[in-house]
């Protein structure tokens, strides 16, 4: 089994046996990633880079803007996990993601990271259960994500 498939299997197993909201810091730790809160300007959401401290077994660490809302930090951590899983070879000296989750990498790569982040935070099988009798706001609270993230997950675009 390839390293990518093993990482995806770990994520799928972790998410499948937990109720929302998914503990993304614990998931990062399962994958060998350390997570740190740091103070950055509001236009910087997060970063994944080689762990220069005595880090985890993966050798990578996630840094998240501690001033952002809990929902935003959760999405940022899931997004950086996705970069580690899907784009590890492209991390190099680090990937900074701005507030719009743009890093300088291609739009395709950022869309892939956003897609996996959504799968982690809002597993489709669980979203479908709530869709018929909950509002978008209720669903967002249930998954501990922003209304905007929930709206995108549902495919509703204004």
Helix/sheet category: alpha+beta
Task: Just give the CATH class.
Answer: Mainly Alpha
Spatial strand order of the main sheet = 1-3-2-4
Proportion of strand residues: 5-15%
Instruction: Report the mean per-residue pLDDT as an integer.
Output: 89
Report the biggest beta sheet as strand number plus sense, adding barrel if it closes. Answer: 4 strands, mixed
* Distance separating the two termini: 41 Å
- SSE arrangement, N to C: HHEEEHEHHHH
Given as residue ranges, the uncertain stretches (5+ residues, pLDDT < 50) are none
* Domains, number: 1
Q: Work out the helicity level.
A: 40-55%
Radius of gyration: 15 Å
- Tally of individual helices: 7
Shape estimate: globular
Outline of the structure:
Helix content is 49%, strand content 14%. The protein is α+β, with helices and mostly antiparallel strands. It starts with a helix and ends in a 5-residue tail after the last helix.
Features:
158 residues, 4 strands, globular, four-stranded mixed beta sheet, 7 helices, Arc Repressor Mutant, subunit A, 14% strand, alpha+beta
Describe the structure.
Helix content is 49%, strand content 14%. The chain has 158 residues and is of the alpha+beta class. It has one domain: Arc Repressor Mutant, subunit A. Helix 3 packs across helix 4. The radius of gyration is 15 Å and the shape is globular. This is ImmA/IrrE family metallo-endopeptidase. InterPro entries: IrrE_HExxH, Rad_response_metalloprotease. Residues 62-154 form the IrrE N-terminal-like domain. Pfam families: Peptidase_M78.
């Amino acid at each position: 089994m390839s390293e990518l498939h093993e990482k995806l299997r770990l994520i799928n197993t972790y998410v499948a046996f937990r109720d929302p909201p998914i503990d993304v810091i614990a998931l990062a730790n399962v994958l060998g990633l350390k997570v740190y809160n740091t103070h950055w300007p509001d236009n910087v959401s997060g970063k994944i880079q080689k762990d220069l401290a005595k880090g985890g077994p993966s050798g990578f660490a996630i840094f998240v803007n501690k001033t952002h809302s809990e929902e935003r930090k959760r999405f940022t951590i899931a997004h950086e996990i996705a970069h580690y899983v899907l784009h590890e070879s492209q991390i190099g000296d680090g990937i900074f993601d701005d507030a719009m989750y743009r890093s300088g990498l291609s739009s395709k790569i950022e869309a892939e990271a956003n897609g996996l982040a959504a799968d982690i935070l809002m597993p489709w099988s669980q979203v479908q259960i709530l869709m018929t009798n909950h509002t978008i706001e209720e669903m967002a609270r249930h998954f501990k994500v922003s209304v905007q993230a929930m709206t995108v997950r549902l495919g509703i675009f204004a």
